[in-house]
Amino acid sequence: MTPGLATTVLAAGAPEHGGAVHYTAASGVFELSWLLIVLPLAGAAVLLLGGKRTDRFGHWVGTLAAAASFVVGLVIFIALVGRDSSDRAVSSHLFAWMPVNSFQVDVGLLVDQLSGVFVLLITGVGTLIHVYSIGYMAHDPGRRRFFAYMNLFLASMLLLVLGNNFLVLYAGWELVGLSSYLLIKFWEYRPAAATAANKAFYMNRVGDVGLALAIMFMFATVGSTNYEDVFGAAAGDMIGYGTITAVALLLLLGACGKSGQFPLQAWLPDAMEGPTPISALIHAATMVTAGVYLIARCAPIFNETQAARTVVLIIGAVTLLIGCVIGCAYDDIKKVLAYSTVSQIGYMFLAVGLGPAGYALGIAHLLAHGFFKAGLFLGSGSVIHAMNDEQDMRRYGGLRRLMPVTWVTFGLGYLAIIGLPPFSGFFTKDKIIETAFAKGGTSGYIYGIVALLGAGITAFYMTRLFVMTFHGRPRWSTEGADAKHPHESPLSMTVPMILLAVGSVAAGGLFIVGGTLSDWLAPVVGEHGEAHHTLSPAVVTALTLVVSVGGFAGAFLRYQLRPVAAVAPADSEVSLLTVAARRDLYANTFNEVAFMRPGQYLTRFLVWFDSVVIDGVVRGTAAGIGGLSGRLRRAQTGYVRTYALSMLGGTILVVGALLLVRAG
Amino acid sequence: MNPANYLILSGLLFAIGTVGVLTRRNAIVVFMCVELMLNACNLALVTFSRMNGNLEGQVIAFFVMVVAAAEVVIGLAIILTIFRTRRSASVDDVNLLKY
Question: What is the ipTM of this complex?
Answer without folding.
Answer: 0.86
